[in-house]
Predict the structure.
Amino acid sequence: MKYPLENWRRLKRGYRFGEKTFYSDFHLGTDYIVPVGTLVFAPYSCEIIKSGNFSEGGNTIHVRFKRRGYGLIIMRCMHLSKMSPPGKYRAGDILGLTGNTGKLIRGAHLHIDLSRKKVQIKNRQNFIDPEEFFSQTKKL
């Protein structure tokens, strides 16, 4: 496994999972404060199943992979400046570059959220704290 960003443990965090934000009472993921153009890596063998420009998250990819103890996971990476095309990727491959896109942004960062099986925005119980997920699965 590779973390989605280099120096993962030392990166500054913005809004964290579950925190109240300026636009919501529950943040579905974690924001990693990095400069525009920072490489975003595949943490596992995976597939980009959806990519596009969405109003709130800007350039966004939906990445699907399986993890023991979790099953099928969908990782959304938002606010990208560049996105790799849909397709299969190996752990460590580049999935995109961080950016400053979308209307819900106040500076360059990467938003990552994780869902079980599919993204259900109104079902908070379906989301997983990225910090907890990557700290646990790194040990597997």
Remarks:
- The CA atoms of residues 115 and 126 lie 6 Å apart.
